[in-house]
Amino acid sequence: MNRRELLQMVAAMTGTAVMGGEAFALRIDIDADAGSPHLPTLSHAGFPFSAREINLLDDIAETIIPKTDTPGAKAAKVGRFMEIMVRDCYTAAQQEAFLEGLKNFPSLCHAQYQKSFFNLNAKQKHALFVSLEKEAKHFNTGQSERDQERRQTLETENKDNNFALQKDFESLPKHFYTMVKQLTLLGFFTSETGATKTLRTVAVPGRYDGNVPYIKGQRAWA
After folding, report:
1. Is residue 203 part of a domain?
2. Phi, psi of 69 (to 5 degrees)
């Protein structure tokens, strides 16, 4: 599975394009003066994440991909992966939305359960995430509708400008929970843990075989 295929899989599972996916897929080095592919300027305010923030992201990720007979997201250190992706691949607006969501998440847990996320039991975590999934779906639909209007406005403006003055379209940030879920899936299945312990991998692929026998219950290939 290559990077683009994985991004498509994550987008399908979460119902929206992966934030920062372009930079992840292409390994873009931002260099506007050299004329290389351009992404909006990133703001590194709020980095690095604190140890508690990393632990919180690991716990959230572990709830999404828990340990079973194979390791979960925490074993793959997905929290640290999220920090790197948000810092290096998100736009300034996406970073701000993620950091705001991360900042407000503990208060959300306290308001609903009067205790921290770390102290919630499995049933409470599941109920919280079900409600966040619904909230995120509604929020993302609104963002998509606003993006359509913004895209049309930008296209009209660009028609009246020469190429040098035309602006790139930047989508509005998605819901914090959507971003975390995307990064959890992306981080886990691109990690050594996810690729070798949950999926199957061949370090040096041999010949292509389009008719490999499948035994029910076998793991998918990385």
Report:
1. no
2. -85, -5
Q: Using CA atoms, how far apart are residues 84 and 90, in angstroms rounded to an integer?
A: 10
Q: What is the CB neighbour count within 10 angstroms for residue 158?
A: 15
Domain-located, residue 217: no
pLDDT above 80 (res 30): no
**Which distant-in-sequence residues (6+ apart) come within 8 Å of 53 by Cβ?**
79, 102
Whether 146 is in a domain gets the answer: yes
Report pLDDT digits (tens) over 192-214: 887 787 776 766 666 777 787 87
Q: Which is more confidently placed, 148 or 215?
A: 148
What residues contact 133, with CB distance under 8 A and at least 6 apart?
177
Tens digit of each residue's pLDDT (9 = 90 or more) over 86-114: 998 888 999 999 999 999 999 999 999 99
pTM given for the model: 0.75
Q: Which residues contact 64 (CB under 8 A, 6 or more apart)?
A: 73, 129, 180, 181, 184, 185
How much is the pLDDT for 44? 57
Residue 213 lies in a domain: no
Write out the residue range of the structural domain in which residue 80 sits.
3-198
Residue with tokens 């119902």: 15
Say if residues 152 and 54 touch (Cβ distance below 8 Å).
no
Q: How many structural domains are present in the chain? A: 1
Left if phi > 0, otherwise alpha if psi is -120 to 50, otherwise beta: which for 34?
alpha
CA distance 14 to 133: 9
Nearest residue to 169 (alpha-carbon basis) of 44, 40, 7, 20? 40
